[in-house]
């Protein structure tokens, strides 16, 4: 992890390999975003008009007189349009620059938290599968960054930021990792390790036998052809003993999705190690909650299976019984995420009686078609919850777009032989029919008949794993949802 320091005056800054000077774009020239004097070479470059401060602009100036040998002029665009997201992108740009130039330390001449966030997120690389090629050329990692002109208390913000980005990188590693390495067994180990490091977390694991006892027929069905046993991993955190309030966060943990007997074609199957991103995100959130000692009560649940193909596979056309008692006709074995979530959601409601439930799942290809990788699809039966989440999305940059949850879509799932089928016969509105299926497993709030449990479903199929990494998402896995839900938990529950 990069060590971040807040330095109150520029004069007392430590010597680093590069000094980053941020500039806004003025009418005709660049305007410094900081308050101290400029190096002669920088003045010269500015006078020549080589640098205007446009968003994304970088100019490297070499200096003989400054404390640093290199000075980087960083353009932030116009001040009035420079929001948190522009600062995050600027931070990622500096991280990329340091990586390319193999710099281990930097000083940044302003103290903007969003910039630090982008820098930290953008410094992530996933190269653990590249060990051989890296031997020739040792990577230089950015180790220390100081932020100048820092106001009092900025160091506390940096500390908190480090905790959050550390958890995001933990989640990114799990999602980027080989499907063969990140399976039910190793996820169980990871969750147990986490609660060993952080005693505020309590981990319980239900494996095949217990899932049978608990009648979780859908989780068992999906995992039938897999080598690993299925697991429901529960991680509890109580940060507010006085309150009855409890948020359940459930993640889809399909360690690899072949599609099952409705096998995925070439072109769709290659990225399916990402299908446990929801579960990995839940672990990341639990890690942050415990480390930051958030004053909330949480139960995290990871529904972990592999949707493998083989003679033991669950079968299209067959009917399986869910934990809720509802029977499900399998119209498509590739619609497996909703099956395991249904059982996990029922179990969590039965056992923990949460006051709200949020699920994260790489659930449908349709949400990728609709929203690409810009927005996560949000479905919710509760306007206040939806609005709070959308707001946290705007604050953190984990953007959400609300999609319709409607009775009409439920009608697409009518089965002639069972209570419900898992996929509609047509592709139309597939993210919406998937959400409608999940909604069938949301019960009433405990002790409040007719009042459904407030629930939000986040379809992260487009945002959790990118074909083309960009900005502060430097690898396929983004860790989307962690900054979103931490902001939500911190700001919306009291
Ligand atoms: N894991 C996939 C969804 C997915 C697609 C995730 C692209 C990430 C990127 C999911 O299990 C799936 O296969 N969904 C099907 C459902 C269909 C059969 C009703 C889909 O969306 O095509
Ligand atoms: Mn699938
Ligand atoms: Zn899937």
CATH superfamily of the largest domain: Zn peptidases
Number of domains: 2
What is the CATH architecture term of the largest domain? 3-Layer(aba) Sandwich
Rg, Å, rounded: 24 Å
Structural class: alpha/beta
Provide the helix percentage: 25-40%
Unreliable stretches, pLDDT < 50, 5 or more residues?
A: none
Placed side by side, the strands forming the largest sheet appear as: 8-9-11-10-14-20-15-16
Major sheet description: 8 strands, mixed
Total helices: the number is: 15
Distance between the termini: 32 Å
CATH class of the largest domain: Alpha Beta
Shape: elongated
What does this structure look like?
This protein is an alpha/beta fold and about 500 residues long. It has 2 domains: about 5-150, Leucine Aminopeptidase, subunit E, domain 1, CATH 3.40.220; about 175-490, 3-Layer(aba) Sandwich (Aminopeptidase). It is built from 15 helices and 20 strands. The protein has helices at about 40-45, 85-100, 115-120, 130-135, 155-175, 185-195, 210-215, 215-220, 275-290, 335-350, 365-370, 385-395, 405-410, 430-440, 480-490; strands spanning about 5, 20-25, 30, 60, 70-75, 105-110, 145, 200-205, 230-240, 245-255, 295-305, 320, 325-330, 355-360, 375-380, 400, 420, 445, 450, 455-460. Strands 8-9-11-10-14-20-15-16 form an 8-stranded mixed beta sheet, sandwiched between helices. Strand 18 (about 445) and strand 19 (about 450) form a beta hairpin. The model has no long low-confidence stretch (mean pLDDT about 95). The protein binds ligand BES, manganese (II) ion and zinc ion. Manganese (II) ion (MN) binds near residues 257, 307 and 336.
């Amino acid at each position: 992890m990069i060590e971040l320091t807040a330095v109150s005056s520029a004069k007392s800054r430590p010597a680093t390999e590069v000094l980053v000077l941020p500039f806004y774009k003025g009418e005709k020239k660049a305007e410094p975003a900081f308050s101290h004097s400029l190096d002669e070479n920088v003045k010269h470059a500015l006078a020549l008009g080589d640098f205007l401060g446009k968003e994304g602009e970088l100019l490297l100036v070499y200096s003989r007189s400054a404390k640093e040998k290199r000075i980087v002029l960083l353009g932030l665009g116009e001040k009035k349009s420079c929001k948190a997201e522009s600062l995050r992108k600027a931070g990622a740009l500096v991280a990329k620059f340091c990586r390319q130039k193999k710099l281990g330390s930097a000083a940044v001449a302003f103290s903007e938290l969003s910039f630090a966030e982008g820098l930290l997120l953008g410094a992530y690389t996933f190269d653990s599968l590249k060990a051989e090629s890296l031997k020739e050329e040792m990577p230089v990692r950015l180790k220390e960054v100081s932020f100048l002109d820092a106001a009092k208390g900025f160091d506390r913000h940096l500390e908190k930021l480090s905790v959050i980005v550390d958890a995001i990188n933990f989640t990114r590693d799990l999602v980027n990792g080989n499907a063969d390495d990140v399976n039910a067994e190793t996820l169980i180990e990871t969750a147990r390790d986490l609660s060993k490091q952080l005693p505020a977390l309590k981990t319980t694991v239900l494996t095949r036998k217990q899932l049978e006892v608990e009648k979780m027929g859908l989780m068992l069905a999906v995992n039938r052809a897999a080598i690993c046993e299925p697991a429901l991993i529960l991680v509890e955190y109580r940060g507010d003993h006085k309150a009855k309030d409890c948020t359940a966060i459930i993640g889809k943990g399909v360690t690899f999705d072949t599609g099952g007997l409705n096998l995925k074609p070439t072109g769709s199957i290659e990225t399916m190690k990402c299908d446990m991103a929801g579960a990995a995100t839940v672990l990341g959130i639990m890690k942050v909650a415990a480390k930051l000692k958030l004053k909330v009560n949480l139960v995290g649940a990871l529904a972990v299976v592999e949707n493998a193909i083989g003679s033991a596979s669950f079968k299209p056309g067959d009917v399986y019984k869910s934990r809720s008692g509802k029977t499900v006709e399998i119209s498509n074995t590739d619609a497996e995420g909703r099956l395991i979530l249904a059982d996990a959601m029922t179990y969590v409601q039965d056992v923990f009686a949460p006051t709200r439930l949020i699920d994260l799942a790489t659930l449908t290809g349709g949400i990728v078609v609709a929203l690409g990788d810009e927005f996560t699809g949000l479905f919710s039966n509760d306007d206040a919850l939806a609005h709070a989440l959308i707001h946290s999305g705007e604050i953190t940059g984990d953007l959400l777009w609300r999609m319709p949850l409607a009775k009409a879509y439920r009608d697409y799932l009518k089965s002639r032989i069972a209570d419900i089928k898992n996929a509609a016969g047509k592709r139309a509105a597939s993210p919406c029919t998937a959400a409608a299926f999940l909604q069938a497993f949301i019960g009433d709030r405990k002790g409040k008949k007719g009042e459904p449990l407030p629930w939000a479903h986040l379809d992260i199929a487009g945002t959790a794993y990118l074909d083309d990494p960009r900005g502060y998402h430097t690898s396929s896995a983004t860790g989307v949802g962690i900054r979103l839900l931490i902001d939500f938990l911190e700001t919306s529950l009291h």
